[in-house]
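Posting this for the archive.
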Amino acid sequence: VQLQASGGGLVQAGGSLTLSCEASGRTFSSYAWFRQPPGKEREFVSASRYRGAYPTYADSVKGRFTISRDNLQNKVYLQMNSLKPEDTAVYYCAAGNGVILSSVTFPSSYNYWGQGTLVTVSS
């Protein structure tokens, strides 16, 4: 099983980026995006459980980021709008099964991880 993340890059504040993550080798019911800002701990960004019916967002990205998925192609996306310098981080996609709502923000809830893609937002 592999998760391949892509779409990171350099963007000016206020701009947009879309991250993609493709899972190969297995189907998952839940996907999530986490990020790790420079010098900080990994933090939860967004999750999509049970094939997309229950999106969850961190307060810091709510209203700006949108998670979506293509269940047929085992892909998950993160549309990021109105980007801020504090969104600068390495973004990771994660996947798992049976993730319950109370545990979506915990990295340990996900068994598989992508390699990370760097998003840099300049001021």
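DSSP finds no helices and eleven strands in the chain. The radius of gyration is 13 Å.
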